[in-house]
Specification:
The complex is a heterodimer of chains A (146) and B (151).
Chain A lengths: L11 E2 H7 L3 E4 L7 E2 L1 E4 L3 H7 L5 E4 L4 H9 L4 E4 L7 H8 L5 E3 L4 H10 L3 E2 L7 H10 L6
Chain B lengths: L6 E8 L8 H12 L4 H21 E10 L3 E10 L5 H4 L9 H5 L7 H7 L3 E7 L3 E9 L10
Antiparallel strand pairs in B: 1-2, 2-3, 3-5, 4-5
Classes of the chains: A alpha/beta (146), B alpha+beta (151).
Chain lengths: 146, 151
């Protein structure tokens, strides 16, 4: 399935995402120059682990510690929490040790996705029958790959 | 079985310990990075480890994740003491789940765990005895070219 974004875009800086979605910066204010070209929205972390491409931005309503570990192991660029959700202190402590910037927007997941889609960001996912092959190929392109 | 061990470490995992669920997978990821393993391998293995760790947290009483780096592959054994899996074939099907509401509220229990571990591994084996526990044994090759490279 290939859904073309509404606008042609080379992506957005995370700081542009912050401004577009009226975000609070929860963590990683020094990494707002990160490039965002693809997003994956889900509350099922197993779906993120199964289908999300590396470097995508995770959009989720789950602020628990498993969301942070998911973004870490799946090599995601950033996390966007919807509905103004904020992690509890224990999760914030874990976030401090990671290099993952985290934003929180007052928009719902549907609205946040729509606004980002309208700016030309794409879905960062592997199609079900191509997951194994594509995930290997994608990770070959990660920084530090041999 | 690995003929030569370059690195081996084992971590305990507690059942129902959602607060720390995922920490072992991220610790192993850090160690593999320090060992200079390629991010291709690390991402696939870390996803498998995270799913295996969460399965143990969700369904078992206690267990361990042990990983061994050899010259040809990284092998992981996740062995638990718990209720086990009565029908492995059924459990391996995508979407099949016996998850509770709490598990789903944490983003797991969609019936993707075991298939996702298998998908990210080059070798995968599961044995389980109901009432005793489950052992997963999987490995990612350090020498096998990725499928996309051979085409």
């Amino acid at each position: 399935m290939d859904i073309a974004p509404l606008a042609k875009s080379a992506g957005m800086k995370l700081d542009e995402v912050r401004a577009l979605l009226n975000c609070d910066v929860i963590c990683g204010s020094n990494r707002l120059d990160s490039d965002i070209t693809e997003c994956f929205a889900a509350d099922m972390m197993s779906d993120v682990l199964a289908f999300c491409k590396p470097r995508a931005m995770l959009i989720t309503g789950l602020t628990g510690v498993q969301s942070i570990h998911t973004a870490d192991v799946a090599e995601l660029t950033a996390i966007l929490f919807v509905l103004n959700k904020k992690p509890v202190q224990q999760v914030l402590d874990i976030l401090q040790a990671k290099q993952i910037p985290v934003l929180s927007t007052p928009y719902t997941m549907f609205e946040a996705c729509g606004l980002l889609y309208g700016k030309g960001l794409k879905g960062g996912y592997h199609e079900r029958d191509k997951v194994a092959e594509e995930s290997r190929k994608e990770t070959m392109e990660l920084p530090g790959s041999k | 079985m690995q003929d030569e061990v370059l690195y081996r470490e084992s971590f305990p995992i507690l059942g129902n310990d959602y607060e720390h669920g995922g920490e072992v997978a991220t610790k192993v990821k850090s160690i593999l990075k320090e060992l200079g393993i390629s991010s291709t391998i690390i991402r696939r293995l870390s996803i498998a480890n995270f799913e295996a760790e969460m399965n143990l947290v969700m369904y078992a009483d206690e267990g361990r994740l042990e990983f061994t780096v050899g010259p040809r592959e990284i092998e992981v054994i996740v062995a638990d003491r718990g209720k086990g899996i009565p029908d492995i074939e059924q459990a391996m099907q995508e979407g099949y789940s016996t998850a509770t509401a709490e598990m789903r509220a944490r983003g797991f229990g969609a019936g993707m765990g075991l298939p996702n571990i298998k998908r990210n591994a080059d070798r995968f084996d599961i044995t389980s005895t109901p009432g005793i526990g489950t052992t997963l044994r999987y490995a990612v090759s350090l020498t096998m070219p990725a499928a996309s490279e051979t085409q």
